[in-house]
């Protein structure tokens, strides 16, 4: 009677507890259903992608007529010939940097050099989670032959207060400069020259000619490190210090490098890294490859990509591409899945016209290849270009790689390419210049299936949640099974006649004791 009274007085467990116990008791079936549903949801993601759209009205891309003209393209050709001659006659990294600085000074803009050393490969546990450090190595003679030299030009905005800036980056290898890198520098200088005369600028413009002999990321990261983390040294230490991130000026008359004050602009609103890649002669038109993935899976605001895509496609006639897994583009099983989903989507669309899941088979295959590459890069956490260094400082940035279809010696085609490329970069700078605040309206968490299609975080979290849902349920089932096994062993060990059976249960139940050890290890690490 007392036991019945106790059972009546005990409150019933909550519904969520009973539901958890039920799922734990059927964890195998639950895991199979969730994994199957998660895989189906993953395969449906390319069909659920939406068209990109501008969320920030202040950007208004293409609202003004471009000012970049054929005269600017001629100036770019003249610059390219001059820097090509400087590259042949230069002595190390100083010659090309000195020529770029002279051309910037002729525009009336501010210029300085930024000397840096390659990144140290030594691992330090206190610097594992951050790269925002100043590495200083002092040598007795204070000389080094293995260094890079960035050239920085700054245009002060005539309508601004110097609190914000737009950064343009052009990488080149000063040790083995190629013709496409010279074309990149010519394009960057021509745009910078145009912006130095622009009366509509309300943000400062910084043009960084990044010496990428140690890698594009290393050059940009070194400059950003010094930009946001200045180093203060005494005069005696500065003369005999090989400093990572030092600022230098080169005197052509005395052929000496002198330490000067590091020049800065305002807070960076956005950054655009652009370069000219290899020529694709079998393509029908020039193309632009967009790289957006930064470190630790960070992505720039989607509005920045939308501006680049709109101006490149609808204004300048470029073909815009994003990186994809080429092996999936020719996959037979993926094409079969695409045909099945296309057939099912057509049937569902007849039932409800709002269910638009019947995308074309080539679009599905290409979208899946792009999506897989986007997911892989974000999961890997390694930046796909030097734009990743800007995201470490919460600056939205993308990298553009132009792929022309002409030969470099074709002057007419080269001038036309410079005209279109310059107008594209000018248009992006105009849109960023219109911003009154930082990018915040659009998405920061998304996957790209095409340059003009994306999957937001609210959609792609559904398959991830389905794939992860069985983990806590199976863990609860394992913990409950281990607990019940220990109780059974304790009960049987009290009976001397069941010693052999207790040993068997202990041998079976002991396989789950690693959970307790893993818990202790995790608690110790955290």
Automatic annotation (TrEMBL):
Give the top-rank taxon of the lineage listed in the UniProt record for this protein.
Eukaryota
Transmembrane helix as UniProt keyword: yes
Q: Name one Pfam family in it.
A: Gaa1
The residues that cross the membrane are: 21-45, 457-479
Q: Does the keyword Transmembrane apply?
A: yes
Cellular component terms (Gene Ontology): GPI-anchor transamidase complex
Q: Alphabetically list the UniProt keywords.
A: Membrane, Transmembrane, Transmembrane helix
Record-given protein name: GPI transamidase component family protein / Gaa1-like family protein
Tell me what organism the protein belongs to: Sorghum bicolor (Sorghum)
What taxonomic classification does the UniProt entry list for its organism?
A: Eukaryota, Viridiplantae, Streptophyta, Embryophyta, Tracheophyta
């Amino acid at each position: 009677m007392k036991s019945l009274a106790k059972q009546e007085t005990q409150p019933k467990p909550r519904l969520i507890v009973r539901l958890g116990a039920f799922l734990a008791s059927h964890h195998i079936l639950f895991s199979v259903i969730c994994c199957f549903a998660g895989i189906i949801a993953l395969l449906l993601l390319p069909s659920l992608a939406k068209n990109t759209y501008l969320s920030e009205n202040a950007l208004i891309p293409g609202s003004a007529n471009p000012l970049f003209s054929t005269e600017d393209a001629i100036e770019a050709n003249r610059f390219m010939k001059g820097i090509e001659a400087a590259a042949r006659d230069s002595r190390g990294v100083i010659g090309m940097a000195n020529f770029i600085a002279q051309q910037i000074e002729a525009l009336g803009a501010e210029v300085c050099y930024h000397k840096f050393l390659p990144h140290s490969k030594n691992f330090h546990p206190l610097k594992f989670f951050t790269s925002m450090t100043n590495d200083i190595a002092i040598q007795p003679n204070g000389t080094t032959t293995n260094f890079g030299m960035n050239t920085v030009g700054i245009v002060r905005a005539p309508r601004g207060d110097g609190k914000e800036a737009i950064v343009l980056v052009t990488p080149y290898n000063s040790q083995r400069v190629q013709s496409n890198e010279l074309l990149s520098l010519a394009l960057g200088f021509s745009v910078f020259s145009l912006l130095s005369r622009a009366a509509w600028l309300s943000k400062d413009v910084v043009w960084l000619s990044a010496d990428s002999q140690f890698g594009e990321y290393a050059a940009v990261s070194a400059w950003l490190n010094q930009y946001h983390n200045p180093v203060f040294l005494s005069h005696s230490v500065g003369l005999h210090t090989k400093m990572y991130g030092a600022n230098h000026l080169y005197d052509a008359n005395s052929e000496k490098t002198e330490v000067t004050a590091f020049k800065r602009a305002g807070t960076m609103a956005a950054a655009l890294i652009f370069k000219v890649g290899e020529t694709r002669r079998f393509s029908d038109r020039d193309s632009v490859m967009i790289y957006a993935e930064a470190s630790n899976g960070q992505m720039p605001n989607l509005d920045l990509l939308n501006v680049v895509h709109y101006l490149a496609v609808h204004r300048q006639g470029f073909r815009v591409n994003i990186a994809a897994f080429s092996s999936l583009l020719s996959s037979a099983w993926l094409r079969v899945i695409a045909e099945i989903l296309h057939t099912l989507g057509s049937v569902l669309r007849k039932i409800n016209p709002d269910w638009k899941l019947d995308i074309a088979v080539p679009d599905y295959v290409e979208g899946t290849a792009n999506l897989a590459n986007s997911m892989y890069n974000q999961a890997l956490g390694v930046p796909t270009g030097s734009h990743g260094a800007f995201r470490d400082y919460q600056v939205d940035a993308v990298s553009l790689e132009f792929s022309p279809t002409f030969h470099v010696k074709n002057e007419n085609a080269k001038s036309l390419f410079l005209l279109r490329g310059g107008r594209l970069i000018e248009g992006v700078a105009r849109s960023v210049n219109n911003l009154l605040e930082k990018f915040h309206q659009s998405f920061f968490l998304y996957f790209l299936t095409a340059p003009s299609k994306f999957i937001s975080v609210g959609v792609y979290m559904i398959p991830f949640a389905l794939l992860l849902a069985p983990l806590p349920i199976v863990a609860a089932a394992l913990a409950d099974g281990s607990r019940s096994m220990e109780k059974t062993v304790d009960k049987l060990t009290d009976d001397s006649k069941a010693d052999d059976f207790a040993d068997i249960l202990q041998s079976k139940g002991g396989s789950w004791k690693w959970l307790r050890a893993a818990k202790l290890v995790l608690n110790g690490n955290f």
